[in-house]
Amino acid sequence: MTSPQSKVSFLFALFALFVCWVPSPALARGAKAEKTTVEEDPSAHSWKLKLILDFGSAPDRDIVPMVFSFKQTATYERALTDESKDKAVTRTVPMANQVPNNSEQEVGFSDSETGKRFAVTKFPITLRRKDDFEAGEYELTIKAVGGATLGTVRLQLKGDNKAIDRRSLNFGESVSAPKKKSDAASKEASASAHGAAEDQGPDLSNIPDVPKALGEPSTSDQAPAPVAPKQGGCGCEVAGVGPLSAGVLPFAVAFALALGARRRRS
After folding, report:
1. Where are the beta strands (DSSP E) in the chain?
2. What pLDDT digit, counting tens, does each position of 95-143 carry?
3. How many Å from the N-terminal Cα to the C-terminal Cα in the chain?
4. Which one of 20, 155, 175, 220 is at 20 to 30 Å from 190 when CA atoms are compared?
């Protein structure tokens, strides 16, 4: 038979085993968000989260470095389709094997005025589009640097992503020909082009001849005035003087004969 003392020892050991197996609430870590669905701030293109982090117990330091790992599980796609015409349609598109967007933050667990440390703290964080965030669904995992994981939070970031054009092209439609220019515009363009091609300088057709304009006689309208020959000339043609006329020639011959007869008598 089992003694009463052995029964008490057995129950005590069983109780101690139960206490060691059940985790203490003081050591339970966790993370949650005040709102898991967050609307975008359109002016700042960002989402502001407010997280509640439970370290399990007061840490041994005021500030604990932590890693916030955002893994996108879905995107809110906006697309223009043949059915939607010019209005974008939003649909949830699941995403798999996405590379997490990690951000290391320093989280404080103490009161700066009193210096007292706490196991639970509230931590705000801002997610911006310029940091590769977009409207969609995310799985946030928070863990201390070099330590255990605090917890995982599922988030929905609401907002309008850039629309994608998924409308099909209609190759049956003919491309409209460019409108023809009016007749006046065509004539003006033709005259302009023609004038530009034949423009060889100013028009000189209406300018009078230089000799007439200066009052000088023209060589084609009036012959040069005759010049009288010098006395005692040989009858040779001198530059600028015309030949002897036929009426003067007989008198010249008679004069020459008379002069010769006189020389013979003497």
Report:
1. 30-33, 37-39, 46-54, 63-80, 89-94, 101-108, 120-128, 136-144, 149-158, 164-165
2. 999 999 999 999 999 998 898 999 999 999 999 999 999 999 999 999 9
3. 214
4. 175
Identity at 104, one-letter amino acid code? E
Q: What is the DSSP string of 40-93?
A: -BTTTTEEEEEEEEE-SS--SSSEEEEEEEEEEEEEEEEEE-TTTTTS-EEEEE
- Separation between Cα atoms, residue 251 and residue 230, nearest integer Å: 17
- Output the CA angle 148-152-157, nearest 5 degrees: 145
The 3-state DSSP class for residue 122 equals strand
pTM of the model: 0.55
Token digits of residue 213: 């304009």
